[in-house]
Amino acid sequence: MQSSYDPNAEIGLNLALAVVGSSHAPVLLLDGDRVVVAASDAFCHAFEIDPTTIVGMTFSAVGHGEWAIPQLQSLLKATASGLAEVKNYEFDLKREGRETLCLVLNAHKLSYGAGTEPRLLLAISDVTDARIAEKMTDDLVRDKSVLLQELQHRVANSLQIIASVLLQSARKVQSEEVRGHLRDAHSRVMSVAAIQRQLAVASVDKVDIGPYLQQLCESIGASMIHDHDQISIEVSSARQQVQANISVSFGLVVTELVINALKHAFPGGRHGTIAVDYTRSGADWSLSVSDDGVGMSAEPTEAKAGLGTNIVQALAKQLEAIVTVSDTAPGTRVTLAHHPASVSSTNPASTPVPAI
């Protein structure tokens, strides 16, 4: 009669027992019926199990039965049958009178040949502290986001108050020059306030450029256009998000150029339209403000650059953009264009902007 003894199976089992016995991590060796064959000292220590009683115990009965989790037991049964393999199964181990642990379990079927009883090797990791740390980090990020949005709301409200005071002062002063300066200051403050409102309702670092420019131009028009049947402002923009700091620069550029057009393009009650346009293709973008007014003078004078001119040129340099001024007959167009491939060989903001 041929013996059923398989030396390879015995070698394999002894090797598995040696691995479990020498492991510094929580490890279990189960048989096909999910009975504990061996347990590492680390497992017994981590889960406060008596090492002298665990061998021969059904896995679901270990401890006070806290391991009898239906889904886990089903997965182990399927693994023993060769139908599944448990990888990074995360679950909560609830223990009466003690803290709940968050564990990650991996189970692998050991097979020593046909006709031999299967074994399951279980490796368990305690990720409780890691999950707590992740939750704390998520909570801090969430709290920071809420506080930042609240701050943005308050800043926007404060800017609105400042802008309102400037506009009221402009209406009261007798000097037309002072009134003009106050209205300019009002429009610049409203430009930043519009950004703050967009940040408050959007993500903390991105702004929808289309709605922002539309809102900004509506604000400028409300404060500076007395007859909306005479002059209108139209906005055409790609529906894209840009970084908040870039949108602030865009807003200030548009504010200066629109104010300039309102001051100079439509003298003597002339009717017309100011168009603001933003387009983008990949890393390339273009921002322009044009009008159909009187256009550029045929004999340009050596006017000293004003505050608006300096602001536009400084912002163009910051944005690595090139400024061009075109006579559109009728009217004028000022364009800031950003083309990364050509910026390195061209001096940004090299075209002078008419005095603003």
- In the CATH hierarchy, the third-tier topology of the largest domain is known as Heat Shock Protein 90
> How are strands sequenced across the largest beta sheet?
2-1-5-4-3
Radius of gyration: 37 Å
**Quick one: CATH class of the largest domain?**
Alpha Beta
What is the helix content?
Answer: 40-55%
Q: What count of structural domains? A: 2
Q: Could you tell me the number of beta strands? A: 12
User: What is the H/E order?
Assistant: HEEHHEEEHHEHEEHEEHEEH
What is the CA-CA span between the terminal residues?
109 Å
Unreliable stretches covering 5 or more consecutive residues: 349-356
Based on secondary structure, the structural category is alpha+beta
* CATH architecture grouping of the largest domain: 2-Layer Sandwich
CATH superfamily of the largest domain: Histidine kinase-like ATPase, C-terminal domain
Structure description:
This protein is of the alpha+beta class. The protein has 2 domains: 7-126, PAS domain (Beta-Lactamase, 2-Layer Sandwich); 132-343, Histidine kinase-like ATPase, C-terminal domain (Heat Shock Protein 90, 2-Layer Sandwich). Helices cover 44% and strands 22% of the residues. It has 9 helices and 12 strands. It has helices at residues 7-22, 41-46, 70-80, 128-172, 176-201, 209-224, 244-264, 307-318, 340-343; strands at residues 27-31, 36-39, 86-93, 101-110, 119-126, 206-208, 231-237, 241-243, 272-281, 284-291, 322-327, 332-338. The strands form 3 sheets. The chain has a 5-stranded antiparallel beta sheet with strand order 2-1-5-4-3, sandwiched between helices. A 5-stranded mixed beta sheet has the order 7-9-10-12-11, covered by helices on one side. A hairpin with a 2-residue loop joins strand 9 (272-281) and strand 10. Helix 4 (128-172) packs antiparallel against helix 5 and helix 7 (244-264) packs antiparallel against helix 8 (307-318). The longest helix has 45 residues, at 128-172. The radius of gyration is 37 Å and the shape is elongated.
